[in-house]
Write a structure and sequence with these properties.
249 residues, alpha/beta, Rossmann fold, globular, 8 strands, 19% strand, eight-stranded mixed beta sheet
Length: 249
């Protein structure tokens, strides 16, 4: 049963509700939605903040890491006094203070093939904010098996990519990024990352998630958005579903 907005919630979300094409109907959809954010680092921090502030009624946030001093230039959910604390605990406290009208479920764990399905079960959407392929593959498989939309994003240096995966309709992650060994990939620790590209990619991921949750058509199913901050170029790359994909073929 759909729970209606309270008068306080209508005031909190007033600047969204007044947008053309949004209104109380879309806000009510958000209130009755459940979203899972996998990872609370560079991408996860702004995604969690935006989804919480926009009024997604139930947020499940997942991470296994603690706050490190090197995180703070880009992970703005945390502050200097958070260093050493579990990211999930700090993030949950901050998000609850930001929006007391939603529910936050914080899970401090690593994502692996044996727990991915339970972690995303009962969610309306999953937003990828991970920094490694192995847990992404686990989440991708769980989302395909559970028929749950999955917004994939990644950033390094000044480059970011995003696509929206709709199980059984679009390519899954394995279709176009299968078989990647994390040990052979460059990392933000070695290559660095610009906070601005993180916020751009995270905001587009949030936008795609909100479109799906409010019953609107997302922009990136079957397309990979490649964004280069250095020269401010944006390219859309069509990606194909693989008939022999081991996950969705």
């Amino acid at each position: 049963m759909s729970i209606p907005l309270t008068s306080e919630e209508k005031a909190y979300y007033a600047r969204q509700i007044t947008m053309k094409g949004f209104g109380e109907k879309s806000q009510t959809y958000l209130k009755n939605s459940k979203a899972c954010i996998t990872g609370l680092g560079g991408l996860g921090s702004p995604i969690a903040t935006q989804l919480a502030a926009m009024g997604v009624g139930y947020l499940r946030i997942i991470d296994h890491d603690t706050v490190d001093l090197t995180n703070l230039h880009r992970q703005h959910l945390y502050s200097i006094d958070s260093v050493g604390e579990p990211k999930t605990a700090v993030a949950a406290e901050r998000l609850r203070k930001l929006n007391p009208y939603i529910e936050i479920e914080a899970i401090n764990t690593e994502i692996a093939p044996d727990n991915a399905a339970n972690l995303v079960k009962d969610m309306d959407i999953v937003v990828d904010a991970l920094d490694a392929m192995a847990p992404r593959y686990a989440i991708n498989k769980a989302c395909v098996d559970l028929d749950t939309p999955f917004i994939h994003g990644g950033v390094i240096r000044q480059i970011g990519t995003i696509t929206t995966i709709i199980p059984h309709k679009t390519p899954c992650l394995e279709c176009f990024k299968g078989g990647i060994d994390d040990s052979k990939l460059p990392s933000n620790a070695s290559q660095g990352v610009h906070p601005s590209i993180i916020n751009i990619i995270a905001s587009i991921q949030t936008s795609e998630a909100i479109k799906i949750l409010t019953r609107k058509t997302p922009s990136l199913p079957g397309r990979l958005l490649f964004f280069d901050l250095e020269d401010l170029t944006m390219e859309f790359i069509d990606i194909a579903k693989q008939d022999k994909c081991k996950i969705c073929g």
